[in-house]
Amino acid sequence: MIDTHCHLDAARFNPDRPDVVARAWAAGLHGILIPAVGPETWEPLLELPRQDARIQVGLGIHPQFLPDLPPEDDGMHLERLDALLARGGAVAVGECGLDGPSVTGAPLERQVAVLRGHLALARKHGLPVLMHCHRLHPALIDLLKTEAWPEAGILMHSYSGGAELARFYIQKGCHFSFAGPVTWAEARKPLDALRVIPPERLVAETDAPDQAPTPFRGQRSEPGYLPHVLAGMAHVLGEPVDVLAQRTTENARRLFREAFPPPSL
Q1: I need a labelling partner for 208 at 20 to 30 A (CA). Which of 30, 156, 159, 197 fits?
Q2: Which residues contact 80 (CB under 8 A, 6 or more apart)?
Q3: Where does the signal peptide begin and end (predicted)?
């Protein structure tokens, strides 16, 4: 099992991060992908895969953090991101994307411009994109209809857009990841989407420390809860959990170009 989206560097893990990681391996995980949310985390994150190859990282700017960054520095941050990606060590570009409605400091025009920069870097460096989209799917679809496609692909993180929107992303070749909400009693749209996604495009995540699955909903999530997410997905798809776990692991390793060690190692 590979957790394709876990903010293990978040402050909420500061008190017990080593224990959280130990519980993840004990739960059967073979890999964890940590997506950056802002420039100040890029260098520290790049150190982690050197210490443990089971932990890999993506580098990017989350749209929710744009208000904390001066707009006039966007170009400088993207140039620095370009330089770091050229050095190697990151397996993806992101977390990046669109988040709505627009807030002060992050109007849609700025979000789109910064996302275009991330997509350009993904194309340049041959890396997949960890795509965040919340309540702005029409704007994202408009962008992706005109933007050159990253050859390494796009992963729709914690997808919640429903089946109809999913069909556009499927046609474009996107991968999809699902988190704790697939286990929530009121879940509808993500379950409908899950049923139409091609099996070879499906991976799993926790989005820890957020979106904890049942029975931990409302608590801090952690990567060791990934088996609960996979159990929820398997229930919706009507297939054995171990079969789905193996397939999503293989899909993740292929998407991230075998960056994660094989489970046997």
Answers
A1: 197
A2: 39, 42
A3: none
pLDDT attached to residue 225: 98
Q: Give the end-to-end CA distance of the chain in Å, rounded to a whole number.
A: 13
Helix (H) or strand (E) holding 81, with range, is helix 74-87
C-alpha to C-alpha distance for 7 and 9, rounded to whole angstroms: 5
Residue 250 near residue 231, CB atoms below 8 Å: no
- The rounded Cα 152 to chain-centroid distance in angstroms is 14
Please tell me whether residue 126 adopts helix, strand or coil conformation.
Answer: coil
> Can you name the residues that pair with 99 across neighbouring β-strands?
134
Cβ neighbour number for residue 135 with a 10 Å cutoff:
12
Distance CA(98)–CA(148), nearest Å, equals 17
Q: 3-class SS at 135?
A: coil
Cα separation, 239 vs 234, whole angstroms: 5
